[in-house]
C-alpha cells in the first residue's frame, strides 16, 4: 500500500502546453476544496496542474442542499456545483471514490487507498468533518446513520420508503433538517436533544421555545433535556432508543446528528500540527510551508467553523497566497457566522454573538399575534448579534451591519423595526413613523382600533396607557401595539403623558394584574410562553419576574404546571433558609406548636449528628436547627422524616405556622379547642404556595395569647363561636387585623379560612402580604368577593383542589434523591502539578 | 495547551439557568454557571458584597442575583452591576466536545480578577 504502484504525474493533459507546471494536489472533493481551486483558476489559470482526490464516488456538489434533497424539494442533479465537464475543461484530474490514506511529506507524495500515488509541489488538504458518533451501546447497529453525504441521504430515503418511526438524536441545525425531511416523507419523528433549548448554539431560550412549538404543531415529538443511554436492536438492526430516564422510543432508523469533528487524521498522521483542527496561519498554510489546508478541517486562531460562509473567505485568501496574487493581503481574519434553518415555513435567523455580555444591550421585540421574536444585541453603538424568529426579512441587513461594525447610534431607536423603517433617515424616530400613519391605519389588531380612534380617545382625556386601554381597548388584549400607543400618547400630548400603574418589573409593560388575567385568559402555561405572548423586553426575564411568573402559573394551573426550580429564590429551591455564611437552617413542622418526645429526640439527634452549632425556639412556636451544609440537607431531612416530621416551609412564600394557645382543654378561660382547631387548620393549609408568606393563629379567648390579631388569618374563639380576622401583620409595619366575619362552627371557620386564602392566592400581587393587599383593594372588596352567593364554597373548593398537588413533603422527595444535583458539588479539586501534554 | 485545562466533566451536569459548585482543596470554591442562553461561566463562589454563595442565586441573561442581598453580578467579568461596586474573580472556562474545562492555574490560584472567560 505504501509503495506508489502507479505514477501518473504529468499524464493529465493541460489546456495549455509550455514549461512544466507546478503540481497542486487537493485532498477532498468537497465544498472548500473545489471552491479553492475555482478561486485559484480565476486568478492564474495556467499556474498549476491540478489533481483532486475525493473519497465520495461523485463530482462536487452543494452539501448544504442535502437537506432539500431529503425533503424532496431538490434532486441530486440540481445540487451539483461542478459537473464532470468543469474538471475536463480546466484540465483537472478528478480521482473520485478513492480515499487518500497517506501523505509522505519527505517525498511530497500522496497515496490513495487504491495505491495510486501523486507527487505534489503544493498540497491542499480539504477533508471537511466527520459526524460525531456518541459512544453509546448499539451505535453500530444497522439503521443508525449520520447526515453528512449523499449516501446518508440514500439510507434515510430507503428507510422512509418502508415507513415507521425515526429518532433523530440532536436538535441542532442538521438534526432538525433531517427530522423535517423524514417527517415530510411520512415517518413518525422524535427528536432527542440533550440541552433544554433546540439549536442552543444559535438560539436563545425564547426563539428555541417558538421553534419547538412550531415543530410540535407539525407532528414531531421534541424531547429536550433528554439523554440517550442506549440504542436498542434485534438481529443486528435498530429497534429503538432508550433514554437515561428509562423510557424507550421505537425506531426503524436512528439519525445521529450531534455534531461534527474536523477530519484531521490524515494530517495528524503525516506529522502536521493538529489541535482540534489542522492548525493554519492567516494564509491557510499549515506547519509545513508546502501544505495548505482549508474548510471545516482547519483551526484558525483557535476557531473551527461548521458553516460555508467562512470557507468562502478562507478560499479567497488561500488563492491569493497560492498564486501570489495579493502579496500585501492581511490574510484571513476569522469570520462572524450566521445561521438560517432550511425548514420550509419556518423563518429563523441567528447571526453574530447573541449571548450578550459586558456593556451589551438587548433590544427585544415580540409580536405574539404573528409569532415573531426579534432580538438585536448592541454593544458600543454597534450591532454584535441578532436572533430573529418568524420574520427574518432583516436578517441580512443586521448581519451586514454586524460584519461591517457599523455605528448604529443614529438609528438605535428604530433599529428593531427593521431596515425599511430605520433606514429612512427622518423616520429613525419611531414617533415620526407613527405620525406618518394615516388615521385609518389599524393600531390594535385584536380590537380593531384605528389610529384616529386612539388619538380621539387620548384627546378625550385618556392621558395614560391604562386610560387608553380602558377607553378604546387599544393595547388591552395582547399588548403587541403598546409601543405604538405609547408613541401616539407622546405625539398627541407632548411630554404630558401620565405614567401608568407600576409594571410587574422592567422586563414588561404589563402590571401584575394584567399578567395574572392574561395568563388565565390566553391559557398561558409556561414561562417562555408568557414572555413571548406578553412581549417581554428581555430574553429570559430577571430575578423579579421569574419567581412571580412561576407562582402565577402554579396558582393558575394546579396539578398541571411543573414548578420551575430555576425561577425559585434559593430558600424555596433548597427548602431551607440560607444563612449569612451560606449554610442553611432547618425548621420542621410542629403542627399547631405541639410536639412530642419522639420529635424532640429526632431533632436532638440531628443537632448532634450534623454538629449543628445552634438550635433555637422560633417566634413561630417551633424549633430551628442552624448551620447545616447544603450537601447534608437530604440526610438531615431523611432523619427528620423518619420521626414523622415534614418541612415547616419556614423558607417559603407559603403557609408558615399556625400558632395556637392552650385553649379550652386546659386553660381556665378557654372557650373553644383552639389548639385542636389550629392543628386542623395547619393540616388543611400546609404546603400551599402563596403570593407571600402566610401566618395563621388561633386564640382560645379574647385575651388572645396566640396574637391572632396580627396574623394574615387569625381566629379568636368566643363563647358563641369563632371570630375570623384577616390582614394582620406583625412585621415591618404592624397592622392589626380587620374582622371579616363571625361563624358558629369549626367547619365554617375552616371553610372561610380556605376561601380567604384562595382569594388571596388568586388576587394579590407576588410579594404582597395580606396586609398591604387589603389596604390596596379594601376590606369591602374582600367581603364582596366572599359574601357573594356560594362564593365561599367555590373558593374553598379551588383551594382544596390545588392542595391535592401541594401536600407532598418536599423534604421526603429530596431525601429520596430528587434534584440531587442541587445538593451535590460538581466535583472536588485537589491541586496537583499540571501535567504537560502538549499535542498529546 | 491541553494540560493547562482541567476537565470538570460533561456539560449536561449543569442544567441551564442554574449553577453548581466545585470546592477546591486549599483554595476558593468555584461556582460554574450555565445560562439560559446556553453559555457557561466560572466564578469564585463568593459575592463581593458579603461573600454570599453566588451559585445559589437566580440566573437571568448573563447575570446572577446574589441570594443574600440581591446584588446583581455579571457572570462575564464578575463585576457588580448597577449602583453596587465590587468584583469577584472569574476563572477562564472553555467548552470542547461537550465537556467543560477550567484554566488550571486560575482554579488553583483563585481566579483572575476581571479576566474574560475564554
Ligand atoms: C426564625 C425566625 C426568628 C426566630 O428565631 O424566631 C424568623 C427568621 C427570619 N425571618 Fe421572620 N422569623 C420568625 C418569625 C417572624 C415573626 C413572628 C411570627 O411569625 O409570629 C414575624 C412577625 C410576624 C409577621 O410576619 O407578620 C416575622 C417577620 C419577618 C419579616 C417581616 C414581614 C413583614 O411582612 O413585614 C421578614 C422579612 C420578609 O419576610 O420580607 C422576616 C424574615 C425572616 C428571615 C427569613 C430573614 C431572611 O429573609 O433570611 C429570617 C430567616 C432566619 C432563618 O434563616 O431561619 N420575618 N418573622 C422566626 C421563624 C418562625 C417560624 O417558625 O417559621
Ligand atoms: C445536511 C447538511 C446541511 C448543511 N447546511 C448548511 C447550511 O445551511 N449552511 C451552511 O453554511 N452550512 C451548512 N452545512 C455545512 C457545510 O456543508 C459545510 O460547512 C461544508 O460542506 C464544509 O466544506 P468542506 O469542504 O470543508 O467539507 P466537505 O464539504 O465535507 O468536503 C470534504 C470532502 O473531503 C472528502 N474526504 C475526506 N477525507 C478524504 C480523504 N482522506 N481522501 C479523499 N477525500 C476525502 C469527503 O468525502 C468530502 O467529500 C450543512 C452540512 C450538511 C451535512
Ligand atoms: S428580626 Fe428576623 S430578619 Fe431580623 S435579624 Fe432577627 S431573624 Fe433575622
Ligand atoms: S452577599 Fe451578595 S448581595 Fe450581599
Automatic annotation (TrEMBL), chain A:
Siroheme binds at residue 705. Residues 579-643 form the Nitrite/Sulfite reductase ferredoxin-like domain. Residues 443-490, 504-553 form the BFD-like [2Fe-2S]-binding domain. Residues 652-788 form the Nitrite/sulphite reductase 4Fe-4S domain. Its cofactor is [2Fe-2S] cluster; siroheme; FAD; [4Fe-4S] cluster. GO terms for biological process: nitrate assimilation. Binds 1 siroheme per subunit. Binds 1 [4Fe-4S] cluster per subunit. Gene3D superfamilies: 3.30.390.30, BFD-like [2Fe-2S]-binding domain (1.10.10.1100), FAD/NAD(P)-binding domain (3.50.50.60), Sulfite Reductase Hemoprotein, domain 1 (3.30.413.10), Sulfite Reductase Hemoprotein,Domain 2 (3.90.480.10). Belongs to the nitrite and sulfite reductase 4Fe-4S domain family. This is Nitrite reductase large subunit.
From TrEMBL, chain B:
Pfam families: Rieske. NCBIfam families: nirD_assim_sml. Residues 5-102 form the Rieske domain. It comes from the Bacteria. GO terms for biological process: nitrate assimilation. GO terms for molecular function: 2 iron, 2 sulfur cluster binding; metal ion binding; nitrite reductase [NAD(P)H] activity. PANTHER family: 3-PHENYLPROPIONATE_CINNAMIC ACID DIOXYGENASE FERREDOXIN SUBUNIT (PTHR21496:SF23), FERREDOXIN-RELATED (PTHR21496). This is tRNA-(Guanine-N1)-methyltransferase. The keyword Ubl conjugation does not apply. Keywords: 2Fe-2S, Iron, Iron-sulfur, Metal-binding, Nitrate assimilation, Oxidoreductase. PROSITE patterns: RIESKE. The keyword Iron-sulfur applies.
Amino acid at each position: 500500500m505504501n509503495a506508489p504502484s502507479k505514477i501518473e504525474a504529468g499524464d493529465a493533459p493541460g489546456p495549455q502546453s509550455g514549461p512544466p507546471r507546478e503540481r497542486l494536489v487537493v485532498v477532498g472533493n468537497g465544498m472548500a476544496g473545489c471552491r479553492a481551486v475555482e478561486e485559484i483558476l480565476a486568478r492564474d489559470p495556467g499556474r498549476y496542474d491540478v489533481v483532486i482526490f475525493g473519497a465520495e464516488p461523485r463530482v462536487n456538489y452543494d452539501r448544504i442542499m442535502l437537506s432539500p434533497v431529503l425533503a424532496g424539494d431538490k434532486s441530486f442533479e440540481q445540487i451539483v456545483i461542478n459537473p464532470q465537464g468543469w474538471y475536463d475543461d480546466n484540465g483537472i484530474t478528478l480521482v473520485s471514490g478513492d480515499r487518500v490514506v497517506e501523505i509522505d511529506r519527505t517525498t511530497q507524495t500522496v497515496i490513495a487507498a487504491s495505491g495510486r500515488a501523486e507527487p505534489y509541489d503544493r498540497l491542499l488538504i480539504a477533508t471537511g468533518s466527520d459526524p460525531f458518533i456518541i459512544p453509546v451501546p448499539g451505535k453500530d447497529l444497522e439503521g443508525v446513520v449520520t447526515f453528512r453525504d449523499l449516501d446518508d441521504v440514500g439510507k434515510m430515503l430507503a428507510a422512509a420508503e418502508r415507513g415507521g418511526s425515526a429518532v433523530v438524536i440532536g436538535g441542532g441545525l442538521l438534526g432538525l433538517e433531517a427530522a423535517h425531511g423524514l417527517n415530510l416523507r411520512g415517518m413518525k419523528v422524535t427528536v432527542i436533544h440533550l440541552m433544554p433549548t433546540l439549536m442552543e448554539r444559535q438560539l436563545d431560550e425564547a426563539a428555541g421555545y417558538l421553534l419547538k412549538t412550531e415543530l410540535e404543531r407539525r407532528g414531531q415529538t421534541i424531547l429536550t433535556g433528554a439523554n440517550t443511554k442506549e440504542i436498542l436492536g434485534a438481529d443486528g438492526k435498530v429497534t429503538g432508543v432508550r433514554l437515561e430516564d428509562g423510557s424507550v422510543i421505537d425506531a426503524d432508523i436512528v439519525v445521529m446528528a450531534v455534531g461534527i469533528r474536523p477530519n484531521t487524521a490524515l494530517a495528524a498522521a503525516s506529522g502536521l500540527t493538529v489541535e482540534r483542527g489542522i492548525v493554519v496561519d492567516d494564509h491557510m498554510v499549515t506547519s509545513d510551508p508546502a501544505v495548505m489546508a482549508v474548510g471545516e478541517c482547519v483551526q484558525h486562531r483557535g476557531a473551527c467553523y461548521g458553516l460555508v460562509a467562512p470557507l468562502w473567505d478562507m478560499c479567497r485568501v488561500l488563492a491569493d497566497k497560492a498564486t501570489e496574487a495579493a502579496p500585501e493581503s492581511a490574510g484571513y481574519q476569522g469570520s462572524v457566522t450566521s445561521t438560517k434553518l432550511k425548514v420550509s415555513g419556518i423563518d429563523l435567523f441567528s447571526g453574530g454573538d447573541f449571548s450578550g455580555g459586558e456593556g451589551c444591550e438587548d433590544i427585544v421585540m415580540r409580536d405574539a399575534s404573528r409569532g415573531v421574536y426579534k432580538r438585536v444585541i448592541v454593544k458600543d453603538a454597534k450591532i454584535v448579534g441578532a436572533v430573529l424568529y418568524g420574520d427574518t426579512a432583516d436578517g441580512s441587513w443586521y448581519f451586514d451591519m454586524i460584519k461591517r461594525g457599523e455605528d448604529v447610534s443614529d438609528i438605535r431607536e428604530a433599529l428593531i423595526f427593521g431596515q425599511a423603517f430605520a433606514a429612512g433617515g427622518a423616520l429613525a424616530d419611531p414617533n415620526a413613523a407613527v405620525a406618518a400613519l394615516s388615521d385609518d391605519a389599524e393600531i390594535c389588531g385584536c380590537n380593531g382600533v384605528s389610529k384616529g380612534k386612539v388619538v380621539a380617545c387620548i384627546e378625550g382625556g385618556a392621558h395614560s396607557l391604562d386610560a387608553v386601554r380602558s377607553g378604546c381597548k387599544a393595547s388591552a388584549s395582547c399588548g403587541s401595539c403598546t409601543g405604538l400607543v405609547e408613541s401616539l400618547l407622546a405625539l398627541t400630548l407632548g411630554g404630558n403623558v401620565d405614567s401608568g400603574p407600576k409594571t410587574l418589573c422592567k422586563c414588561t409593560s404589563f402590571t401584575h394584574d394584567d399578567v395574572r388575567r392574561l395568563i388565565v385568559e390566553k391559557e398561558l402555561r409556561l414561562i417562555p410562553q408568557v414572555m413571548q405572548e406578553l412581549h417581554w423586553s428581555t430574553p429570559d426575564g430577571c430575578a423579579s419576574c421569574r419567581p412571580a411568573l412561576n407562582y402565577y402559573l402554579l396558582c393558575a394551573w394546579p396539578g398541571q404546571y411543573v414548578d420551575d426550580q430555576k425561577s425559585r429564590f434559593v430558600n424555596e429551591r433548597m427548602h431551607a433558609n440560607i444563612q449569612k455564611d451560606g449554610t442553611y437552617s432547618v425548621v420542621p413542622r410542629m403542627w399547631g406548636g405541639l410536639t412530642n418526645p419522639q420529635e424532640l429526640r429526632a431533632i436532638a439527634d440531628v443537632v448532634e449528628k450534623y454538629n449543628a452549632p445552634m438550635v433555637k425556639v422560633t417566634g413561630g412556636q417551633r424549633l430551628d436547627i442552624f448551620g447545616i451544609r447544603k450537601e447534608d440537607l437530604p440526610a438531615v431531612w431523611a432523619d427528620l422524616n423518619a420521626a414523622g416530621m415534614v418541612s415547616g416551609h419556614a423558607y417559603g412564600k407559603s403557609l408558615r405556622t399556625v400558632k395556637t394557645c392552650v385553649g379550652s382543654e386546659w386553660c381556665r378561660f378557654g372557650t373553644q379547642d383552639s389548639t385542636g382547631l389550629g392543628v386542623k387548620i395547619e393540616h388543611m393549609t400546609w404546603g400551599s404556595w402563596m403570593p407571600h408568606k402566610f401566618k395563621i393563629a388561633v386564640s382560645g379567648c379574647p385575651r388572645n395569647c396566640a396574637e391572632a390579631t396580627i396574623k394574615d388569618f387569625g381566629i379568636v374563639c368566643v363563647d358563641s363561636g369563632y371570630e375570623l380576622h384577616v390582614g394582620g401583620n406583625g412585621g415591618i409595619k404592624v397592622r392589626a387585623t380587620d374582622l371579616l366575619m363571625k361563624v358558629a362552627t369549626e367547619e365554617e371557620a375552616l371553610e372561610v379560612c380556605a376561601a380567604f386564602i384562595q382569594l388571596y392566592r388568586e388576587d394579590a400581587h407576588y410579594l404582597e402580604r395580606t396586609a398591604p393587599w387589603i389596604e390596596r383593594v379594601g376590606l369591602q372588596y374582600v367581603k364582596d368577593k366572599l359574601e357573594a352567593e356560594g362564593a365561599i364554597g367555590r373558593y374553598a373548593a379551588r383551594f382544596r383542589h390545588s392542595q391535592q398537588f401541594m401536600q407532598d413533603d418536599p423534604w421526603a422527595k429530596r431525601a429520596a434523591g430528587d434534584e440531587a444535583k442541587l445538593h451535590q458539588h460538581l466535583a472536588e479539586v485537589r491541586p496537583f502539578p499540571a501535567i504537560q501534554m502538549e499535542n498529546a | 495547551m491541553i494540560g493547562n485545562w482541567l476537565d470538570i466533566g460533561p456539560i449536561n451536569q449543569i442544567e441551564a439557568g442554574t449553577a453548581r459548585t466545585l470546592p477546591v482543596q486549599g483554595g476558593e470554591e468555584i461556582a460554574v454557571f450555565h445560562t439560559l442562553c446556553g453559555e457557561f461561566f466560572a466564578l469564585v463562589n463568593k459575592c463581593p458584597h458579603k461573600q454570599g454563595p453566588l451559585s445559589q442565586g437566580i440566573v437571568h441573561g448573563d447575570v446572577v442575583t446574589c441570594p443574600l442581598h440581591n446584588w446583581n453580578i455579571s457572570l462575564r467579568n464578575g463585576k457588580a452591576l448597577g449602583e453596587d461596586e465590587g468584583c469577584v474573580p472569574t476563572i477562564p472556562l472553555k467548552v470542547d466536545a461537550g465537556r467543560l474545562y477550567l484554566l488550571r492555574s486560575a482554579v488553583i490560584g483563585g481566579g483572575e480578577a476581571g479576566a474574560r472567560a475564554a
